[in-house]
Write a structure and sequence with these properties.
The complex is a heterodimer.
Chain A (H helix, E strand, L loop, with lengths): L5 H25 L4 H25 L30 H25 L6 H29 L2
Helix pairs in contact in A: 1-2, 1-3, 2-4, 3-4
Chain B lengths: L7 E3 L2 E3 L6 E6 L4 E7 L3 H19 L3 H17 L1 H12 L3 H18 L2 H4 L3 E7 L2 E9 L2 E5 L13 H6 L3 E5 L6 H13 L6 E3 L4 H9 L3 E7 L2 H14 L2 E5 L4 E5 L5 H13 L9 E7 L2 H16 L3 E2 L14 H16 L3 E4 L6 E2 L11 E4 L6 H4 L6 E7 L2 H10 L2 E2 L1 E5 L3 H10 L4 E4 L15 E2 L2 E3 L5 H7 L1 E9 L2
Parallel strand pairs in B: 7-8, 7-10, 8-9, 10-11, 12-13, 12-20, 13-18, 14-16, 17-18, 20-21
Antiparallel strand pairs in B: 1-2, 3-4, 5-6, 6-24, 11-23, 15-17, 19-22
The chains are: A mainly alpha, B alpha/beta.
């Protein structure tokens, strides 16, 4: 589905963040040693969603932003595979999480690129979330390495 | 299933209007019944004005900083209910959810600015106008003011006035549009929640009888109005007879000038919002598109404009992918259809015919039109002259900027006009020479922020001081001059 309005983008952000939160909550249940880490990622997702919403509700005006039209954003390009196989190992789960994070980062960077016609606040918020998520990826990669090295 | 009958809010209580006359409030996108609004009588208005008059003494003696604190609480609640408030607007008006969110935001901004009343209300003093004699001016509230509100921005428009009025120490009565009263009910529920003293703000549903009583009531000090030029002029004349102050923001026919050096890609987003945002039901909407340039530029530009207009998704504004909602009711659609037919009859070329509906989702056609574009429009035609208040753009070719400015200034209206150019000299000439009171340079909708007055001239405005910001505070107060000497 084409995301042609900010309302559609906000709905998609919400769905995307909720889906990846759900993944981390499942991980927290299944892998008790990393429960704290996964829970914190799920909480951070909620913050990202709120951040986007607050930014937009904060700058939208009936005159300038309300009918902003996006181009080139399509949900089909950002499908998230969040359902984990029952017997997935922790390294497999971490790889899945990294794939999902990469997809989400790609979405936010594209959203930033195509929303430059909006006041600067929105592309800035999208970029900031993408940057934070890149750091998250580094942490997940490090975790995956530790898991693989641990017998 | 019973349908809600809206209540008035008078003296801090939700009360039934003393009438059996009700109008149906319908969702224009779905053509479903939402509620009934009572057409309040003279007695209902009298009760509201009496409550406001009774509350005035104590309210004006409440320190400005304390009055501002009520507004701070209101802002917090509005933020909390941001989305719910926006959904109500879309449901009763039809605009897209993002347009409603924009309206909510601007409404909040009005209240935020009014919280600065301890600064906005300050007078001034000159020491020693003669030796040992000082003179100062203080701004005092006057009593009860009212707002007769339109349907097109059912949430925001009363907030252009009400927050400033009450922050200045006045009390207030709102009569929302009988076509879209629910947004004000939602707002007044928040007023109820912040615990304003009874009578400071009052809500009376109704139509002509209620409006006329407000205009004639001896305790109403001033009237704020947004609506048609015809009604605005009548209000101004009537209030002139009784000595009431007036801010009447009225009709418009706004011109957008495209210079041959305009950044077309960047302009297109603004132009779509300007001509088709709020389904064209906005006094700041673009109406006449004046294109300057050679044949090649003209064709490329207009083709691009038509293509962009044709691609707008039209449907129920609650669908997040929809970019344009319906007209507010079936009568409004009929009116726009009539003027489209007049345009065709007068020889304008219908390049994009919005009567051929292309709608998103399963929605009844009752109130919908798609974007419409006329070319070969000449100044005398109805589509170039009359306010259409719908999603219709009239394209006129003009030879140069001087001719464009001449056309703009020949219009009886003077609400807004914009130029799209990369040339500073042209932009400067345009803003200096055009009559309208709101001017955009590479901006399609010149909606002044809350801390600036809302401009407007000629048949688009009747009054002296304008709404919003400091000017509104001057409107809602009167200077008292004190000359002081101590022996």
């Amino acid at each position: 589905m084409k995301l042609n309005t900010m309302a559609a983008v906000m709905n998609f952000v919400s769905r995307m963040e909720s889906a990846s939160s759900a993944l981390y909550l499942t991980c927290a249940e299944r892998y008790p040693p990393l429960k704290g880490k996964f829970l914190s990622l799920a909480t951070e997702n909620q913050k990202f969603e709120k951040m986007v919403q607050q930014k937009y509700f904060g700058v939208i005006t009936d005159a300038i932003e309300a009918t902003f039209s996006f181009e080139l954003l399509d949900t089909d390009d950002y499908n998230l595979e969040v359902v984990l196989p029952e017997n997935a190992t922790l390294p497999e789960v971490l790889r899945r999480a990294l794939e999902i994070e990469s997809t989400i980062i790609a979405f936010y960077l594209k959203a930033a690129e195509v929303s430059t016609g909006l006041m600067a606040d929105m592309p800035r918020a999208f970029r900031k979330i993408a940057e934070t998520r890149k750091e998250r990826c580094l942490a997940l990669e490090a975790l995956a390495r530790i898991m693989q090295e641990t017998p | 299933m019973s349908v809600e009958r809206l209540k008035n809010f008078i003296n801090g209580e939700w009360v039934e209007a003393k009438t059996d006359e009700l109008v149906e409030i319908r969702n224009p996108a779905r053509d479903t019944l939402l509620c009934h609004a009572p057409m309040s009588t003279r007695a209902d208005v009298d009760a509201a004005v009496k409550a406001a008059q009774d509350a005035f003494h104590d309210w004006r003696n409440t320190p400005p900083v304390a009055r501002a604190r009520y507004l701070h609480r209101l802002v917090a609640l509005m933020e909390e209910k941001f989305n719910e408030l926006s959904v109500v607007q879309t449901t009763e008006h039809g605009k897209t959810i993002d347009e409603s969110r924009g309206e909510t935001r601007r409404g909040i901004e009005m209240v935020e600015v009014a919280t600065g009343i301890p600064s906005l209300l300050q007078g001034y003093l000159l020491e020693d106008i003669a030796e040992g004699v000082d003179e100062y001016a203080i701004y005092q509230p006057l009593g009860v003011f009212c707002c007769i509100a339109p349907f097109n921005f059912p949430f925001m428009v009363p907030l252009w006035f009400l927050p400033y009025a009450i922050a200045c120490g006045n009390t207030f009565v709102v009569k929302p549009s009988p076509r879209a009263p629910m947004s004000q009910v939602a707002l007044f529920k928040l007023f109820d929640e912040i615990g304003l003293p009874p009578g400071v703000v009052n809500l009376v549903h109704g139509a002509r009888e209620a409006a006329e009583r407000l205009l004639d009531h001896p305790h109403i000090q001033g009237v704020t109005f947004v609506g048609t030029t015809q009604v605005g002029r009548q209000i101004y004349e009537r209030c002139g007879e009784t000595g009431k102050r007036v801010i009447a923001q009225c009709g418009a026919k706004n011109f957008i000038v495209i210079m041959p050096d305009a950044e077309v890609d960047k302009a297109m987003v603004s132009l779509m919002a300007s001509f088709f945002g709020n389904t064209g039901q906005r006094c700041l909407s673009g109406a006449n598109l004046l294109v300057i340039g050679d044949d090649g530029f003209y064709r490329r530009f207009v083709d691009r404009f038509v293509q962009a207009a044709a691609s707008l998704k039209v449907g129920d504004g609650l669908d997040p992918t929809v970019q344009m909602g319906p007209l507010q009711n079936a009568a409004a659609k009929r009116r726009v259809l009539e003027i489209i037919e007049r345009g065709v009859a007068e020889g304008a070329r219908l390049t994009l015919d919005g009567r051929k509906l292309r709608l998103v989702g399963e929605v009844p056609e009752t109130c919908f039109l798609n974007p419409t574009v006329f070319e070969d429009v000449i100044p005398g035609m109805a589509v170039a002259r009359e306010e259409i208040f719908g999603p219709v753009a009239s394209v006129l070719r003009v030879k140069d900027l001087d001719e464009a400015i001449g056309l703009i200034n020949a219009s009886p209206y003077g609400n807004a006009s914009s130029i799209f150019t990369t040339n500073g000299k042209w932009a400067r000439q345009f803003q200096h020479d055009v009559d309208p009171g709101n001017v955009g340079i590479n901006v399609g909708i010149v909606a002044p922020m809350a801390f600036f007055p809302f401009g407007g001239r000629k048949d688009s405005f009747f009054g002296v001081l304008h709404g919003q910001g400091k000017e509104a505070c001057r409107f809602f107060t009167d200077p008292k001059i004190v000359i002081e000497r101590w022996f």
